[in-house]
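Our working data are protein records whose layout never changes between entries. The record below serves as our worked example for the rest of this section:
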Amino acid sequence: MPKNTNKSLGLLALAGVVPYQEKPNEEFMNADQREHFKKILDAWRLQLREEVDRTVSHMQDEAANFPDPVDRAAQEEEFSLELRTRDRERKLIKKIEKTLQLIEEDEFGFCKSCDIEIGIRRLEARPTADLCIECKTLQEIKERQMAG
């Protein structure tokens, strides 16, 4: 009889780390779970840093002084988009590092607003989440009301 694998169950790996399989009556945010999310965050941070390195190399390799103003403008626009993307990723790296610190301080996985468990599946989808789904929904509603 074939052994069930995460692939056969249709589970997707985040940052190359297979989703956590909860055990019956397991305590929330135990050492195994904290280690699991630490692996995800470390792998994600590494991927983002590699992207930064690729961007720097790409921009150095592709930098040319085009005599045609249209070509030069197109290249500058491409570089501008890449730099904006890298800036968002730089902010995400900081958030990942903050989350890793929360794991070290044993404060990861609980809503910073109401202190309830955020939940394994939500953390699998968004490992840097610091609000439970209810508090996040309420925050988004308030933000929309303030903007509109």
Summary: Residues 59 and 79 are 7 Å apart (CA to CA).
